[in-house]
Amino acid sequence: MRPVLVFLALALAFSLVAAAQTPDLSGVWVVSGSPDIAGTPAYKPEALKILQQNRANLKEKDPATYCLPNGVVRVTNLPYKIVQTPKLVVILSEGNTHSFRRLFVDGRAHNLEVEPESWTGDSIAKWEGDALVVDTIGLNDRTWLDSSGKPHSEELHIVERYRRASATRLEVQYTLDDPKAFTKPFTFTRTFTLQPNREIQERFCTDQNHLAGKQ
Amino acid sequence: MQRSYRNLVLTAAAAATVLLLAGGQGSAQEATKQKQIVPPGAAPPKPLGPRGPSGPVPRTSDGKPDFSGLWNSQRNLPGQEEPAMLPWAAALTKERTANYSADDPEARCIPGGVPRAFPYHHQIVQTSKLMLVLFEGNIHTFRQIFLDRTEHPKNVGPLWYGDSIAKWEGDTLVVDSVGFNDQFWFDMAGHPHSTELHVIERYHRRDFGNLEIEVTVIDPKTYSKPWVMKREATLETEIEMTEYVCNENNSDALHLVGK
Asked: Hey, are the CB atoms on A118 and B242 less than 8 Å from each other?
């Protein structure tokens, strides 16, 4: 066989294997254990002050009280559904604002031109081995890292590594870098458990519940 | 990102009303002016914009049309028949429209339901099992249309977006939805419905950039015969959908001035 054909055959074989090996993260998932983060980032004094203020007036300060989005890092103990396509992964949330995140796996770069800051930021993703690595910037400073009031600034940069550790277990490693609020990057890991017989239920948050009926 | 398209429609009405109240009271001149304000729900549909890009219909690996993409708002085609409303529905719609749509739940960040069309983008994400609709607004939420089941669950609802299942009829995806609550309006005019609402949507991607949607509303408690609406949406290839968060600094409700 001529070298060029060998090369083409190998390239084809390799790409077929690579395509076949793209892990499937699809499914309905619930966080294992507490949705809150066990540790606390190394806060700079000003951010620490905000944390203390939040803790002193937890309900009043909590964006979720006003049906505002939880953002990227904070999760609830209600199910999340991952819908995976080759170029786009969508995460649907049953709880909080019953909204979604879009993770672009199409090779694009970050683009903050239209929305420099938003609640869920700008998320681009790529596969590294069996992990989907999601890079997020362009966040506002209004969300909390969890329900205990942990703040962050608009400089927060999030890297999430999604890995399906087993058929029923999804592991997400978080690296949070926020030079304005933290003295050093903060890392932690969460796991989610597959809910084979569960579907996302319709659950809306509205701060005018008298208008939304009992849903 | 927080935006208020309703303000475009309502600010004129609200501002005019405020000006009238601020000026003298009860003169014949004011009465004439007030009559000139057109309630937003009574405005005729805007003409369709330019067509979407041409080209072949994208298809999935199993040969079905792929509706995936970012679509502009669904717009009603002009010149369509009026719905045949039962007397209670006609009276309620008239009252809501005449009241400048001030009670429209949509403006209070309440889910818009089905088949309400919004002047926002919606993104369709299609897999072999699911057609997912991601809404930019009225609220930044989603609707799941299941392609992998053929029956609605028993005792479903009452839900804002109902339970939606779909099947293929040639190249047309026929979406069947039931299990709705009766809390949302079909449009700014305030067309109502009951919990017996049954909606059939027929999605047909005419070419690369143009999507046709025929909506049939069946609700014998509200309409004396099925109400068919023909709509179109165009593909958006140049821009991205924004993160519209209705509950963020929502100022619409303050601007809603009724009679």
From this structure: yes
* Closest chain A C-alpha to B234 CA, distance in angstroms: 21
- For chain B, which ranges sit under pLDDT 70? 1-36, 45-47, 250-257, 259
Distance CA(B164)–CA(B173), nearest Å, equals 12
Query: Which residues in chain A have their CB less than 8 angstroms from residue B110's CB?
Result: 204, 206, 208, 211-212
Nearest Cα neighbor of A136 from A160, A115, A154, A153 is A160
pLDDT band at A11 (very low <50, low <70, confident <90, very high): low
Q: What is the ipTM of this complex?
A: 0.88
**Helical H runs in chain A?**
3-21, 45-56, 58-61, 209-212
Task: Inform me whether the pLDDT recorded for A211 exceeds 90.
Answer: no
Q: What angle do CA A174, B240, B116 make, to 5 degrees?
A: 105
In angstroms, the separation between the Cα of residue B33 and the nearest Cα of chain A is: 33
Inter-chain residue contact A215 with B105, CB threshold 8 Å: no
Q: What is the largest CA-CA distance in chain A?
A: 75
**Residue A19 pLDDT more than 60?**
no
Find, in chain B, the residue whose alpha carbon is nearest to that of A120. B243
Euclidean distance between CA atoms A30 and A193, whole angstroms: 5
B200 in reach of chain A (CB within 8 A):
no
